[in-house]
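**Fold in tokens:**
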Amino acid sequence: MAVYFGALLTKNPNWRWEAEEIIPTERGFVLKWLAEIPVGARMLAVKGLDIVEVREGLISRNEVYFDRSSLFRVT
């Protein structure tokens, strides 16, 4: 995951990500986040969450949920 996220941010250096809340679970955690993504001349604020599970020190599950509709409405 760290490799993927590092590559994503390397290709998109103006994106900003902020953890808003981390909720521990039995197998890992839920991460609520806010991303600021430049699209054209605008900066979009996108909220989302990840469900992360860890097994033997490695991420075994990472599901990401967010509403992408705001990304398609920008002109």
In short: The domain at 2-72 is CATH 3.10.450.50 (Nuclear Transport Factor 2; Chain: A,).
